[in-house]
Automatic annotation (TrEMBL), chain A:
InterPro entries noted in UniProt: AAA+_ATPase (IPR003593), ABC_AA/LPS_Transport (IPR051120), ABC_transporter-like_ATP-bd (IPR003439), ABC_transporter-like_CS (IPR017871), BCA_ABC_TP_C (IPR032823), P-loop_NTPase (IPR027417)
Xref: PANTHER family: AMINO ACID ABC TRANSPORTER ATP-BINDING PROTEIN (PTHR45772:SF7), CONSERVED COMPONENT OF ABC TRANSPORTER FOR NATURAL AMINO ACIDS-RELATED (PTHR45772)
Organism: Bradyrhizobium zhengyangense
Lineage: Bacteria, Pseudomonadati, Pseudomonadota, Alphaproteobacteria, Hyphomicrobiales
UniProt protein name: ABC transporter ATP-binding protein
Keywords for this protein: ATP-binding, Nucleotide-binding, Transport
UniProtKB/TrEMBL annotation, chain B:
Keywords: Amino-acid transport, Cell membrane, Membrane, Transmembrane, Transmembrane helix, Transport
Matches recorded under PANTHER family: ABC TRANSPORTER ATP-BINDING PROTEIN, BRANCHED-CHAIN AMINO ACID TRANSPORT SYSTEM PERMEASE PROTEIN LIVH
Keyword Transmembrane helix: yes
Cellular component GO terms, alphabetical: plasma membrane
Major localization class: membrane
Native species: Bradyrhizobium zhengyangense
Protein name in the entry: ABC transporter permease
Lineage: Bacteria, Pseudomonadati, Pseudomonadota, Alphaproteobacteria, Hyphomicrobiales
Amino acid sequence: MSLAPPLLAVEGLTKSYGGIHAVRGVSFSLRSGEILALIGPNGAGKSTCFDMLNGQNRPDSGHVRLLGEETTGKKPREIWRMGVGRTFQITATFATMTVRENVQVALISHRKQLFDLWGSAPNVDRSEAGRLLELVGMGGYADRPCGELAYGDLKRLELAVALANDPKLLLMDEPTAGMAPRERVELMRLTAQIANEKSIGVLFTEHDMDVVFEHADRIIVLNRGTLIAEGSPAEVRGNPQVQAIYLGEGLLYEGGHREGASA
Amino acid sequence: MAFYVVQFLTGLASAASLFLVASGLSIIFGVTRIVNFAHGAFYMIGAYIAFTLTERFSGAFGFWGGVVMAALAVALIGVLVEMVLLRRIYHAPELFQLLGTFGLTLMVEDLVVLIWGPDDLVGRRAPGFKGAVDFFGQNIPSYDLFLIVLGPVVLGILWLLFQRTRWGVLVRAATQDRDMVAALGVNQKWLFTSVFAVGVFLAALGGALQIPRDAVHHAMDLRIIVEVFVVVVIGGLGSIVGAFVAAVLVSELNAFGILIFPKISIILVFLVMAAVLIVRPWGLFGKPEAAARKTPGLSVNPWRPLTSNERLASLAALVIAALLPLFAGNYALTVGSEIAIFVIFAVSLHFLMSVGGLASFGHAAYFGLGAYGVAFLAKMAGLPMIVCLLLGPLLGCMGAAVFGFFAVQLSGVYFAMLTLAFAQIVWSIAFQWVSVTGGDNGILGVWPASWAASPSHFYWLALGVAALVTIALRIAVFSPFGYALRATRDSLLRSEAVGINAKRIQWTAFVIAGTTAGIGGALFAYLKGSVFPDNLGISLSVDALVMVLLGGVETVSGGVIGAIVYKALNIWLVSQTDLSKLVLGGFIVLIVVVFPKGIVGMLEMLAQRRRKSPPPGSSLLAKPIESAE
């Protein structure tokens, strides 16, 4: 065991809205290169938890640390500058710009050239943008207007944009929501490969249990705002409490795939 | 003490009309999402028609009947406008709706003068409320007391209407989610029409009820619309209670502001508004607006820098323009200079609007500040022209830095209304602070130095500056900053998620646009030899908007073309007809309905269609060939 702080350390994260405890004392950690899935039924507090990690939402109490450095209370853009890339559940891209320009904006921001009024943006890191797009399999789409892309391609573009600042940590909120089954597998395989090569930690929420059990190194389970289970896919699958929550459904996962169940 | 109570009651009485008009605007916005600029025009027509009817019919019935009939008649006009114009532009960007209804306002201003003449009309007193009530030695007109009671009564009626009737339930539902209401099988068309009719009725009633208090005149529309914007911004768009509270607040601020700061009373109201917007951007009683459902698949041509051929063509056009003094007379050159100056003005707003997605409705403030900056430096400090030209725009820069900081905290219609309000503040300072600005008389005798005095020299100067400004802004569009600005326009969420401080980027863009407008204003002061409050008035702000939209807001160079076409047309119209506002207004309405993409946008679309689509009939044939390439 090394004494270095983990990539991401979450401690006693708590948030309530009015009388409702959305998240209660959630703690977990994440190592570099590890892929961690955050799952739970609707209303479990996944999104609230996620928003507190990326700065969209402030916790009532608790801490989030990135490599030992406090990120709690920081703005999304500041957290990004600390090396956290993210993708959204509903994609957010620059619709009137081309695919390459989308990536270039992120690169311009990374190079801190945002207030450069004189340079030629179309030439900023053109090859680097192309390389990132190749990485996610979007090389052929570089000059397409982003608004014309199919949904699955938008998700891949978001991944390329999220990788533009050489992140240490990727936060992906339901990365495969709204995608066709084959696209899901491809996107997650790609993510796992990149995370592995660059030793990036990945935290993702997901509803599709196939995706979760196939690609996560470790799983944490939220229910009604509290963390009820944590462990390898096999451990979590065997956890009776988790099975109770995903009543009936859990049994179908035995053998690693389910039959006939719709997502 | 009694004096202050009376002042307070006078304020309450003024609030009644303001509340009627503001609630109408709020109701219409809530359901149709249209910020109805023409609301002031409906208020004005209400007053004019009520004047005619109450003069024609005598007695108490004649008066009160006339007031109600006037409001009903205007509501009918409103229905007509809704069915003929607004139905065509509900799905257009909100900017176009503001602009279209502004076009209507312009038309109405000329029409009322045509029908009722240019003079102020003083109506008769309300029967039964002719006298005054003695209040500890102070007189209060009894009509004021009537109005004080009327305000809450109307509020109550509206409350009942919205809470207790089926129609009210539908309106409230549509205010929350009009797509859902449509999906539930409600006939949206007639819901919108009826809502518009009710809103217009309230506006016209507000106008008609003003007759016993105030003269009817043809500029009352702009005055009320600015106050109403302030009221709905403070109260919260879409909230009727908010409109009531804010109307009282604004009226009281006016009533007491006159006592405390007689010279700059109007600023007080705007300061309160700015404060509210900073603390609660959606107003005291409003709710943060849920993002409207956008139609996906936005197909905008990606912008690209000019190709070398296009650069050559632009250069050739510039050279030809520079040759104008060889064959044109002095008048044409002066017109040419004015057009060049308006190109500067238009491209500055275009930068903010097209690249930044920030539609300023008060951009003339910075143009005018540049002009006043020059006038101050030239007349008071006696500095030479070249120094004035360099330093004058700094006043526009400073104004944009201060106002822009607050304005960029908001977006969409709120941004538009705040910028409009700021421009009105600047205008009222220029108008009221007579000792410094000369008020309505302006500052005269700002003449160019001898090297620029001849029309041809001045023309070259204006043309040169316009070319430089246009080129500089084009470079900025394709600079990293330009990309960042476009990014904040396209998705705030994503830009923040890639480390962009969106507000700071937008603020910078606002300052750049304001400074550039100030450069135009500085030249304008020398062209005209004088500076007036009109140089920062609403109509000039709207001129800029029209130029940008006419050229095409989704294009890179629309501002230039729009300015040339619009200004030339404008100057020509004014020389040809007395009804220039009517024609111009009609023209604006036409652009909004027929050419929503503007001239350049339309040309681009045509060019692209020619390039992309095969001739009709051969599409089946073309496909396999394309894919074989």
